[in-house]
Design a protein that fits this description.
Blueprint (H helix, E strand, L loop, with lengths): L2 H6 L1 H9 L3 H13 L3 H16 L2 H25 L5 H21 L5 H28 L6 H32 L7 H23 L19 H20 L2 H10 L2 H9 L2 H14 L5 H22 L2 H37 L3 H29 L2 H6 L1 H9 L2 H15 L3
Helix pairs in contact: 3-8, 3-9, 4-5, 4-8, 5-7, 5-16, 6-7, 6-9, 7-16, 8-9, 8-12, 8-13, 8-15, 10-16, 10-18, 10-19, 11-15, 13-15, 14-15, 14-18, 14-19, 15-19
Length: 421
């Protein structure tokens, strides 16, 4: 089936969605609603801290505490799954993200301590959300359907990362220029927070429309793993390295070189629609064997974006970099997550352990990478220069990421061999 045929027949595409098992559909719908929340949390909270403190290090501290809270909550979540329904923990994580924004907006002084506490709360919300979301995704899909599942999910995430930044950015910018609420941008942020909280409630209601099963095996804490899983953890560390740096640098670059939050939303929206449809088509038409090619293309696009940013270091360079990032992140994810799930399928059968044991352990691989990425930014910004941290370190990160390509290719081949393919 051609790309044009797919885009011209939305009814048939919807019927394909309906053919998914009911638990998969419920999970996707809940995630689609929550997808409207994530851009606000990941983009505008950082911009709010930057606006209020004018200190990139405070933004980095916030992200570091967020990432610290995630693996801690994965651990707590593992024990709670023995007593509490997974849907309850999943929805609690979504609601907690709204509460964390409320705490952030109520701070009178954005000190490192206050921002750190709000960051830990947000990290806990992400921990409950991602730990249970990953387990549910693993158990409601198989290797053959995961390209479609993650293609559809990433399609909606990409669309919301276009729509939400444009709308929220325009609302915040107009509040300041049009003197809405007396020109009080912080009041506008509070209104956005209320809307976020309402969306988390709706998403929580949807996830309770299905009875999901908790992990059967209660033990999930292990220290020795199969060699294939150790290689997957190296790949997770490389992914986390880019995440740790990218969650901080783009907002600071835009606020420094492009303009206000309105520009932030506009830049995120450019060419994003095409990206979203491309992801959906990739999910529908590609096979598991195509993942390594999607993975490689995404990483090279990321490298191109960092080179433009480093060479130009201007508003134009930032726009090109963010456009490349908009392409890179979903392309990377649509190939990475099914690969991770395939490895979990294989090693969990070999070692006869709960899949959650690997989901939990995987988060620590991501955390190590995120921690190193954020610490790299903090050290360079404070002891070398902020310009160097924003200009050259991104290129270094992108070059290091290229090591993921041969590593991912080796992991996929070994996993398929062990799986009898």
């Amino acid at each position: 089936m051609t790309v044009t045929a797919i885009l011209r027949r939305p009814r048939e595409e919807y019927s394909i969605f309906l053919q998914l098992p009911r638990p998969t559909r419920v999970l996707l719908i809940s995630n689609m609603i929550y997808a409207f929340v994530l851009p606000v949390i990941e983009i505008f909270v950082g911009a709010y801290i930057m606006r209020s403190s004018n200190n990139p290090s405070i933004v980095a501290i916030y992200q570091l505490t967020v990432y610290t809270g995630i693996p801690i909550t994965f651990l707590v979540n593992g024990f709670l799954l023995n007593k509490i329904k997974i849907s309850h923990l999943y929805s609690f994580g979504m609601l907690l993200s709204g509460l964390s924004m409320v705490v952030m907006m109520s701070l009178q002084d954005l000190s490192a301590v206050g921002v750190g506490i709000a960051g830990l709360l947000m990290g806990c919300s992400f921990g409950f959300f991602w730990a249970n979301r990953d387990f549910l995704a693993l158990n409601t899909t198989n290797d053959g359907s995961r390209n479609y599942y993650y293609g559809l999910e990433t399609f909606f995430y990409t669309i919301t990362y276009i729509i939400v930044p444009v709308i929220v950015g325009a609302f915040l910018a107009t509040t300041e220029t049009g003197q809405w609420f007396g020109g009080n941008v912080n009041m506008a942020y509070r209104i956005v927070t209320v809307i976020v909280f309402i969306l988390t409630i709706l998403s929580s209601i949807v996830i309770h429309r299905e009875k999901f099963k908790n992990p059967v095996q209660k033990q999930f804490l292990f220290f020795k793993f199969h060699a294939l899983w150790k290689k997957m953890m190296v790949l997770a560390g490389l992914k986390g390295l880019a995440q740790g740096y990218l969650v901080t640098a783009p907002a600071i670059l835009i606020m420094r070189l492009v303009g206000n939050e309105g520009s932030l939303g506009l830049v995120q929206g450019i060419s994003g629609v095409a990206t979203a449809f491309m992801l959906y088509v990739l999910g529908r038409t590609t096979k598991p064997s195509d993942r390594i090619y999607i993975f490689s293309v995404g990483l090279f696009i990321f490298l191109v974006g960092t080179l433009f940013n480093g060479v130009l270091f201007s508003a134009i360079g930032v726009v090109i970099f963010v456009l490349c990032k908009v392409l890179f992140a979903p392309l990377h994810d649509i190939a990475y997550f099914p690969t991770e799930m395939l490895v979990i399928d294989v090693v969990s059968k070999i070692e006869r352990r709960s899949e959650f044991a690997y989901i939990f352990n995987h988060e620590f691989g991501l955390y190590i990478g995120r921690f190193l990425g954020l610490m790299l930014f903090i050290v360079l910004a404070n002891y070398v220069s902020e310009i160097f941290a924003l200009k050259y370190a991104l290129i270094i990160i992108a070059v290091i990421q290229l090591a993921s390509i041969p590593m991912a290719n080796h992991i996929i081949k070994q996993a398929n061999h062990l799986n009898g393919k």
